[in-house]
Design a protein that fits this description.
Layout: H1 3-6, H2 10-33, H3 50-54, H4 64-97, H5 101-115, H6 118-132, H7 140-166, H8 169-176, H9 181-210, H10 213-217, H11 227-234, H12 241-278
Helix pairs in contact: 2-12, 4-7, 4-9, 4-11, 5-7, 7-9, 8-9, 9-12, 11-12
Length: 284
């Protein structure tokens, strides 16, 4: 047995698994009590779907405030995805092809929302919409613009990384074969970027659904309350397992987005590799 195989990093592996358990066990306990048959969030009283749809008044399906919060989160995440993904993709294309000192400054500004503390971004957006751009009302409209503001950076980073790995050879080859710039972009570059664009869209959707600070600053009343805001405000005033059920649905949406992104990326990557192998290209 080699020395490398004898010296296994047991300490590092143990610390890693302890950290994973410390992070996941409280979440799993909260998910478990969303299926509790009683009103307690600490004592197990049997399994049921009472707090999802069984209770005629307090379940997520039958409580108008919980149902509205879930609908607001899903709607806001969907519209943020539809706006931020194409804008971020276009910005990534422009920043990749733009050369000069101004391009470096633009790259730094593009990364600024990722480095700015979220509470600073939320308070700044609140001041902007309440003092400067008063034509945009606080609520759903302001929340959408705020989410697009910080979500575009995720799209730019992911799509630009894919652009740099692809290079300009395929687009140049298409131009040499007679394709126009628009045709090369539509038929060559965008299909190669599809996995990255889809992954960025899923990340934007999950980040928008999970956001609390920006949504809270730009919310006005119950009509614009999202799931994170509802959880924060309701966990102390109405501590029933219905909040656990609502949090579980939010967690399920985020996990499904990540899993779907991984499956589609894997499938598209495999199809793209097979197509390039048929053309005799082995390195993408």
């Amino acid at each position: 047995m080699s020395a490398g195989r004898r010296r296994r990093p047991w300490a590092l592996a143990t610390f890693t698994w302890l950290y994973v358990a410390w992070s996941l066990v409280p979440v799993l306990i909260a998910v478990q009590f969303s299926f509790n048959d009683g009103r307690s969030r600490t004592t197990w009283q049997g399994a049921s779907f009472r707090w999802y749809w069984g209770d005629p008044f307090a379940s997520v399906a039958n409580d108008p405030s919980l149902r509205l919060a879930l609908t607001n989160s899903l709607t806001l995440g969907l519209f943020t995805l539809l706006v931020a993904t194409p804008l971020g993709t276009a910005l990534a294309l422009g920043l990749t092809r733009w050369r000069g000192r101004a391009s470096r400054a633009s790259n730094s500004l593009m990364l600024l929302p990722l480095a700015t503390p979220e509470i600073v971004l939320g308070s700044a957006l609140f001041i902007v919409f309440s003092e400067l751009y008063t034509v945009v009302p606080l609520g759903r409209s302001a929340q959408l613009i705020g989410h697009v503001t910080f979500s575009m950076s995720y799209v730019v980073v992911i799509v630009r990384a894919r652009l740099l790995s692809i290079g300009s050879e395929y687009e140049t080859a298409a131009r040499d074969l007679g394709a126009s710039r628009t045709q090369a972009l539509r038929t060559v570059l965008l299909p190669l970027l599809a996995p990255a664009v889809f992954a960025a869209a899923m990340i934007v959707f999950a980040a928008s659904m999970d956001d609390f600070v920006v949504s809270s600053f730009l919310s006005t009343d119950a009509s614009s309350v999202t799931v994170p805001i509802k959880l924060y405000s309701g966990v102390r005033t109405s501590p029933t397992p219905a909040l656990n059920a609502l949090a579980t649905l939010l967690l399920l949406g985020s996990v499904l987005s990540a899993v779907l992104a991984w499956l589609v990326l894997r499938r598209l990557r495999r199809d793209q590799t097979d197509q390039l192998a048929q053309l005799g290209v082995t390195d993408v």
